[in-house]
Amino acid sequence: MKSNIITMPVEIMEGNRFNIERIRADFPILSTHVSGKPLVYLDNAASSQMPQAVIDRIVRYQSQEHSNIHRAVHYLSELATREFEAARVKVQHFLKARESREIIFTRGTTEAINLVMHGYGRAFIGKGDEIILSGLEHHANIVPWQMLAEEKGAVLRVIPMNDAGELLIDKFEALFNAKTKFLALSHVSNALGTINPVKEMVAFAHSRGVPVLLDGAQAAPHQSLDMQELDCDFYAFSGHKLCGPTGIGVLYGKAHLLEKMQPFQGGGDMILSVTFEKTTYNVIPSKFEAGTPPIMAAIGLGAAIDYLNGIGLDNIEAYEKELLHYATKRISTLTDVRIIGTAAKKAAVLSFEIKGVHPHDVGTILNDDGIAIRTGHHCAQPVMQRFGVPATARASFAFYNTKQEIDKLLDGILKVQEMFS
């Protein structure tokens, strides 16, 4: 049987140089042409692309290993179960979690956050209690807590930010009081790229006895993670931003908290016994994985983690910082272009506006040149309100992007300005 570990056949680093040509060859979609021009894919914060190794692993599962898992004793079921649970262990090691049972597969970051809201929030947050969020949050880390607050009579408190898009830590600390029961915070802002000082913020919250959930959707693809070092109580991320498939996400939770939480959904495989009088729930993580799970997607996520580990998250982070610095420097030279979000510590996200041009027009014109960016409020309308804009144009970079692609983005912006001058 073939190994389920992906190995990198060619060295990723050539001396001190990141071997970008080798990397790009792994991504078949990057050879696409749009309107006769080579694709320049700069929408990685929305969804990254998938390397051939992950595609091949998915095809192998579907063509040679597919079966439902956990319940049957036949060959395919046992094989699929083994590969599915092996993917869970890969995620455990990726996050440096203590135990594989602390890893719950979900459909994505959004479902993971909702799972915590229902399983923990509804059980332990009540009338008059306070939940702290930040002004940088994605809607997925706002709306569930609003729903809980409306149901329970709880109160949301919001950490403000400065004009650079950095959270005001003194204001954050001042929000805590005896009524504070939970902190839900993005590790990295999807709209601005701000990297929050989450380790210090988690430590402060814990000093006040407050548990913490981190939305890691924009952090997990771009930097090494260590749950023991961060010490957060819950961490959520999505596979499709991590060079994996859509429809798969992860919730990490400390075992002692998961054990006392209520299940999010009821159904098969999350039970030990069922009668019409009483149901006994299964142990974690099964308690939170009702029904047939996303088997193929989980195995694909495991393959994506193998691939990224083969490159090295530290190598990825360093190269993407180089791209961000280059793009920031170049765009800063343009007249009537404002970068929104200038935090000292940022991930590879660059949001900007062009004076007198709606972001949707920017995106449409760039697309004519094969350049894919994201335009809109990025599911972060409070951020847009803070900066007084209806939307932004957002270019987000991955380790398979190049400085030459950034140059094409600059040429496209100049073309937009010329058309609207």
List keywords for this structure.
421 residues, alpha/beta, Aspartate Aminotransferase, domain 1, 2 domains, seven-stranded mixed beta sheet, 17% strand, disordered N terminus
Regarding CATH, which class of the largest domain?
Alpha Beta
**CATH fold annotation of the largest domain:** Aspartate Aminotransferase, domain 2
Task: Give the count of helical stretches.
Answer: 14
Shape: globular
* Straight-line distance between termini: 62 Å
Strand element count: 19
Task: Average the pLDDT over all residues and give the rounded result.
Answer: 95
CATH superfamily of the largest domain: Type I PLP-dependent aspartate aminotransferase-like (Major domain)
The fraction of residues assigned to DSSP E strands is: 15-25%
Biggest sheet: strand arrangement: 6-12-11-10-9-7-8
Sheet/helix structural class = alpha/beta
How is this structure best described in words?
This protein is α/β, with parallel strands linked by helices. The protein folds into two domains: 13-50 and 313-420, Alpha-Beta Complex (Aspartate Aminotransferase, domain 1); 57-309, Aspartate Aminotransferase, domain 2, CATH 3.40.640.10. The protein is built from 14 helices and 19 strands. It has helices at residues 20-24, 52-65, 75-95, 109-124, 143-152, 169-174, 198-207, 227-230, 255-259, 295-311, 313-331, 359-368, 381-386, 403-420; strands at residues 13-14, 17-18, 33-34, 37-38, 40-41, 103-106, 130-134, 155-159, 180-186, 212-215, 234-238, 249-253, 271-274, 279-281, 337-340, 349-354, 371-372, 374-376, 392-396. A seven-stranded mixed sheet has the order 6-12-11-10-9-7-8, sandwiched between helices. It has a four-stranded antiparallel sheet with strand order 15-16-19-18, with helices on one face. Strand 13 and strand 14 (279-281) form a beta hairpin. Helix 2 runs antiparallel to helix 10, helix 4 runs parallel beside helix 5 and helix 11 (313-331) packs parallel to helix 14 (403-420). The longest helix is centred in the first third of the chain and has 21 residues, at 75-95. It starts with 12 loop residues before the first strand and ends with a helix.
